[in-house]
Amino acid sequence: MFNKLTLLAVTLLVTLQSVAAFNVIVPAGERRCFFETLEKNDNIHLTFQVGEGGHLDVDFWITDPNETLVDDATKGASGTFHHEAKINGKYEYCFSNAFSTVTDKTVGFNVFIAKPYKPDPTHKADPLEADIRELAAGIQEIRNEQEYTLARERTHRNTAESTNSRVVWWSLFQSGILFLVCVFQITYLKRFFEVKRVV
Q: Transmembrane region positions (predicted)?
């Protein structure tokens, strides 16, 4: 029983340590690139969400160590990418805001590197291990969904606050115009009904 609990704890710790969540600001006309060193048959899972800036879109791509394009997305607001490494080396993934000349973009992304499971031939297969691996994969999916939900909530909150600010300023502008029209009408009508006396 102790060995199974230890195995569960180690598996969860290893899984949680291999997950990374980041936020990065991509200035207008620039790109931000990151690297992951993978071994053959490693799986990289990457999700991203543009949280702030412009039309909430960036260009994205992944290249292998030979600089061959693995996957890409043009002007995407969010995306999920999975790739199994075919060769050892540094895999580069980039977020580009080159098409924008004014607006910076804030991008939140999660990276998860999954090492392939290599069974130990001397170790007897345990059904609990398979359940633990399945649980760890489920936990990773939940974490990705939470990050995505947080990014969407931040985007919606910013949109609501911006709309609220515009409504307030528009209301103040309309109130000012109404006040000026009232003053003008009162003054004009007052002059219209004035009795002019000739001395």
A: 167-189
69 closest CA partner among 79, 77, 78, 60: 60
Range from 98-107, 141-150, 178-187 carrying the lowest mean pLDDT: 141-150
β-bridge partners, 62: 71, 93
**Exposure of 63 by Cβ count < 10 A (0-12 exposed, 13-18 middle, 19+ buried)?**
middle
Class (C level, CATH) for 2-155 = mainly beta
* CA–CA distance, 113 with 111 (Å, rounded to integer): 7
**109 strand-pairing partners:** 22, 48
Q: How far lies 91's CA from each of 66, 145, 168, 170, in Å? A: 9, 24, 48, 50
Q: Are 46 and 80 in contact (CB under 8 A)?
A: yes
Angle between helices 127-192 and 2-17 (to 10 degrees): 40
147 vs 175: CA distance, rounded Å: 42
One-letter amino acid at 128 equals L
- The reported pTM is 0.58
Question: In the chain, what are the domain boundaries?
Answer: 2-155
- What letter represents residue 12's amino acid? L
Q: 105, exposed or middle or buried, with CB in 10 Å at 0-12, 13-18, 19+?
A: buried
